[in-house]
Specification:
It is a single chain. This protein is α+β, with helices and mostly antiparallel strands. It has one domain: Thrombin, subunit H. The chain has three helices and nine strands; from the N terminus they run βββββββββααα. The strands form two sheets. The chain has a six-stranded antiparallel beta barrel. It starts with 10 loop residues before the first strand and ends in a 6-residue tail after the last helix.
Length: 147
Amino acid sequence: MTEDLRRHPRFSVDVQANVRTSDGRKLPARTRDLSRSGMCIITTNSLAQRDELLIDLILLFGPSSASEPLPLRARVVWCTPISQAFQIGAMFEKLSKTEQSFLDMFLRYLDGSILPAGAEVQSVGEAESGANPAEPPPEIKDDPFRR
């Protein structure tokens, strides 16, 4: 087992991401994971190392409820082919205090520190059971191209 030497914990999260490159391309993407310092996204386009990106994250709270896009500036650190797409590692750069505070809020939402408005806290028994009958099996849930 290898030790994870990252500065910040990563959260597995699959949300819509709209990527704008420095040369003006607009690419649809999905996130694979997210941390305070960067993220991994999946897209059908290869990106060059050090490319500057503007990544808008869009959170879906239900079938007809979505967040305003959260714009995050990032730089491509690595790009790896995966199936018929590319996995991109991006490090956040030059985030304003406002952008950083929204990112921090989103990360607290992911770690369970805060809940969306109207959400109910699970009882201890529900939280410990970990069973979620609506959640797809891992082989489907972890496939970023299966929708």
